[in-house]
Amino acid sequence: MSLSRRVVWVVAVLVLFVAVSAAGVWYLATRDVRTEFDDPDERFKYASMGTEHIGMPLRIWEVVPDVCPERLPGGYASLGFIFEPGHATPIGLPVRTIGVPRVGLNCALCHTGTVRETAGSPRQIVLGMPPPSLDFQGYVSFLIECGADERFNVDNVMAAMEKKQAMSFVERTVFRSVIVPKTIEAGREEGRKMSWVLDAIRMGPGRYDVFNSGRVRLGMDPRSGPTATVDFPPLWNQQARRTHHAQWDGNNASLSERNRIAAIGAGATPDQADADELEWIDDWVLTVPVPKYPFAIDQQLAEKGAPIFQIQCSRCHAADGSRMGQVTPIDEIGTDRARFDAFTPDLAAAMNTLRARRWSIQSFQKTAGYANLFLDGVWARAPYLHNGSVPNLRALLEPPEKRPTVYYRGSDVYDPQNLGFVSSGPEAERAGFRFDTTIKGNGNGGHLHGTSLAPEEKDALIEYLKTL
Ligand code: HEC
Ligand code: HEC
Q: Residue 224 pLDDT more than 80?
């Protein structure tokens, strides 16, 4: 073979090699692979709904607590996440491969709770239950603060990753030169957008301000409007709530719109939100069962409570109630108004501009107060009221001046005497976050219904509420 022909061959082979490598790198950098789940409950807990585009690569996510150890001494578990065997991430943090495996968020994070019968018993996981121990603000704050920390640099992140799990030459090169620097940069940018979370009041476990995150996703200034922290609501039995004015202030009467705005608030853009998954969630949430009260119920006493509920509560809280699914005006219900004020007409208008190929949002509206809601599974929804300002049902049936002004939240140990999670004493303080009702947005006034009943009537009513 002549020299020139040989050169042509070498060049051709090189070009082919470069082209194949480039195609391979392109594939690896952009491939989008969902993990599929056959079991519906597993799917709810671990499937992606399309928020991973802004999610951190799993390998990096795993070592953030090692890079900033004193910012999260107990690791991710200390934030109240629910870890199950066989999963690299907790319930609600799905992993999807977009280039590399990335950690996202799904509905189960804020809509799956745990309960323990005593401090020594195992945790029961209840799908749809508001998680009493999840410190979501703590999670977001930790990621922002560690992300901005000078120790969160390429060398330290690489060292922590290699310490955890050996890397091949190719992995090391790609992570060091591209993925880690990009993640640090993207994390700082996201941290700047979400920095309102650091300046907000300490929300404590079981609570968050989702609509202010919504402001960020809609390109609005999160500091432009009032903010308000709310308790996570239950996600079971949505069939019965389909056309109710739901969200705490009843700002939307369409279940599918409520489900979609949740995906946007959690970080997906309308194009990235996984339309198939959201349609599956629409159906699945219709069937989530209401958890049964796990302790004994005195049936005779509960029967005495039924007519009291009928007279005092059913018009706003029962299926046949004349005001069920409607909104009680703020001055009539008299509970803390911060959440009511925080949902502003301009936020509603901005939400109503959201469009995707298969859906659009159009019916958010400013309402006049707070929604009259079903009390199904009410035993598992403590602390009570939209802002979680009242630790248990017994306290809710007391006039506001007799409700505790300070209590501890965060424990998932149940208190069957008062119907709520233990909120005072050593177990509560150990797990707990000190909730102060004198802080703006935490007020525990209003909702005087049932507060003037006789003590034995309250006992009967509480027994009846266990059956819902
Ligand atoms: C970051 C936590 C978080 C995530 C993730 C989340 N939610 Fe929520 N969800 C909330 C909070 C908080 C509210 C109450 C909002 C309010 O009214 O202020 C809520 C309200 C709702 C409601 C209205 C319930 C009612 O009866 O008023 C529905 C329905 C809902 N979410 C569905 C979903 C779905 C479906 C997903 C996943 C696509 C999801 N949520 C993801 C925190 C979350
Ligand atoms: C006039 C309508 C009305 C009546 C009557 C009424 N409630 Fe309510 N209730 C509401 C509204 C509105 C809310 C939401 C208030 C808030 O979160 O600030 C609420 C909230 C609650 C909650 C908190 C639910 C949660 O998930 O945190 C409980 C528990 C409750 N009510 C129990 C009762 C009981 C028991 C009675 C009867 C003694 C009663 N209510 C009578 C309108 C009513």
A: no
How far, in Å, from the CA of 232 to the mean position of ligand 1?
Answer: 7
User: Under 8 Å CB-to-CB from 247, ≥6 apart: which residues?
Assistant: 233, 258, 343, 371
pLDDT in tens, 85-108: 999 999 999 999 998 999 999 999
Distance CA 387, CA 379 (A): 16
Asked if residue 328 lies in contact with residue 316, where contact means CB atoms within 8 angstroms, the answer is: yes
Q: What percent of the chain has pLDDT over 90?
A: 79
The gap from C-alpha 112 to its chain's centroid, in whole angstroms, comes to 9
State if residue 180 touches ligand 2 by the CB under 6 angstroms criterion: no
Compute the distance between CA of residue 245 and CA of residue 326 in angstroms, rounded to an integer. Answer: 6
- Distance CA(324)–CA(239), nearest Å, equals 14
Instruction: Give burial (CB, 10 Å; 0-12/13-18/19+) of 100.
Output: middle
- pLDDT for residue 34 is more than 90: no
Specify the ligand 2 atom closest to the Cα of 386: 17
- Candidate from 449, 453, 462, 464 with most ligand 2 atoms within 8 A of CB, to mutate: 449
Q: Measured from the CA of 241, which atom of ligand 1 is nearest?
A: 26
Q: Tell me what pLDDT residue 214 has.
A: 87
Ligand 1 residue neighbourhood (C-beta within 6 Å): 49, 105-107, 109-111, 136, 208, 210-211, 230, 232-233, 235, 241, 246-248, 258-259, 262-263, 266, 281, 339
CA angle 442–312–292, rounded 5-degree value: 75
Handedness of CA 344, 347, 352, 356 (dihedral sign): negative
Min mean pLDDT across 12-21, 203-212, 344-353, 378-387 is at 12-21
Among residues 157, 181, 137, the alpha carbon closest in space to that of 65 is found at 157
pLDDT mean over 42-66 = 94
The tokens 């056959």 sit on which residue?
A: 38
pLDDT value of position 31: 83
27 burial via Cβ count (<10 Å: 0-12, 13-18, 19+): exposed
Residue nearest to atom 33 of ligand 2 (CA): 313
CB 225 within 8 A of CB 215: yes
Task: Give pLDDT tens digits for 105-144.
Answer: 999 999 999 999 999 999 999 999 999 999 999 999 999 9
How buried is residue 156: exposed, middle or buried, by Cβ count under 10 Å (0-12/13-18/19+)?
middle
* Tokens read off for 43: 């799917």
